[in-house]
Each structure stands twice: as C-alpha cells, then as structure tokens.
Design a protein that fits this description.
- By secondary structure, the chain is α/β, with parallel strands linked by helices.
- The chain has one domain.
- It is about 35% helix and about 20% strand.
- The chain is built from nine helices and twelve strands.
- A seven-stranded mixed β-sheet has the order 1-11-7-2-5-3-4, with helices on both faces. A three-stranded antiparallel β-sheet has the order 8-9-10, with no helix packed on it.
- The chain is globular, with a radius of gyration of 18 Å.
- The termini are far apart.
Length: about 260
Amino acid sequence: MRRWRVWELHRDYFPIKLVKTAELPPTRNYVLGSHPHGILCTGAFSAFCTEATGFSRTFPGLRPSLALLAGLFRMPVFRDYLMSSGMVPVNKRSLDFLLSGPPGHAVVIVVGGASESLDSAPGEQRVRLQGRKGFVRLALQHGADLVPVYTFGENDIYRQIRFPEGSFARCFQLGFKQLIGFAPCLFSGRGLFSSRSWGIQPMAAPLTVVVGKPIPVPLCPRPTEDEVNSFHTLYVEALKELFDAHKESCGLPASQQLLVT
C-alpha cells in the first residue's frame, strides 16, 4: 500500500518534497519529532507512510512508523489499513516494542499532538514543545537518537477559525480533546472545481518535509529529570536551527522566527 500510485498523485498535487540533511544509519533506532501538526499531518503522512517522496531511497535500511491516536486502531478494517502503511498507536506499549527490537526503526511522533492542530493557520509557524518531554524520555530509555523534523507549508493548506485562549469555544475544543482524544477544528480548504470556492479539499501549497541531523542519545533505562531536561533543551535548539537553515529556501522571510510554546 505504501507504493500505491494514488500517493504519487497526492504528492504531486501540493507538491510534497522530502529533504535529507544528514545520514541516518540503519544501525541505530531513532525517535523523530515531527512538527507542526497542522490539521491532518499531511506532510508527515506522505513522507513516512508512503513511498511517494522516496523515503526508502533517501534513508535506506530504515523502517518508518508514524504514531497516531490510539483510538483510530479500534476500528475494524481501517486499523488494518493503518498498520499496513506502517502506522502504529501512539502509546508506550507500541513504541517500546518497536524501539526494543533490532536497529533500523524510525518512530515518528507528532509531538504537538491534537492541541497543536488548534494553532494551525496559513502563515503560522508555532510548535508546542514546552512541557512535552515524553518523547525525550522514550528515546533515553531505549538509547534511540532524537531527530527533529519540520514540514514547511503544513499550516498553509487549510484555513481555520481559531478561538481565543480562554473563550468558551476554545474550552469546548480542549474539553472534547480530553474526552475523545482529538480536537474538533473548524477548518476549510478549497472546492473541488475551483480554488476560489469553499470546500474540504486542501489548498495546493508546497510542502517540504525536512529531516534534521540526529542527536546522539545514550541508553538510560531510568533517566533522571535533569537528563530529560538536558536532551529536551538540545532538541529544541536543534529544531530552531533546522527551521532557520531552511526557512528561506522554503519561501519564508529571513526575519521569520519559529515560536516554541
């Protein structure tokens, strides 16, 4: 299913490009943090769940697994489709299983999660990372290298009605997320036959998935808070450096800054 022709058409519609900045030897396991979430994680899906952007050619020997909301895997048939594309539930049991196995696994976690989808809007360059350290602890427990990933253009393919922090509507969205697991977003794209009409088809904006350099992580089965905080700081710095190094080539002004909240 990863090689279906439809994924190439999906890639060409935007278009979507995968950019490699460093080697990821298959002799190691990796935890890739993907940013931003956007509405549907379109760039991450194309890059890591299909071969449309040439992941296997770009990173030979690596087996990518995009971690998704665990509730999606409770639906018969759809669950089998997700797993056939390499997707896994984003829970500790599944991720521990992958990272405890032979080297060559690349577990992709959309760190900002559903909360970050509420920040998605064209031109927005914001990620939620402060206080999100579980992926760092996971990497330390398995000695898996951390790799930052940023998808430029992810927030540009859908418009969204964003409600102010503290408003009733935003509280409802957050409460729904706590109860169900995902945040209900009021978003729109373009119509099927015209880019000027309203619809749910995403707008055709270029998406560039940039995979950064690995951060070497030692094996610490029981990492301390200081160790987790230290590697979290290194990760945030690496993500900002990745963003700054590629923002202009991806159409952003040199003055654009990545907001980490």
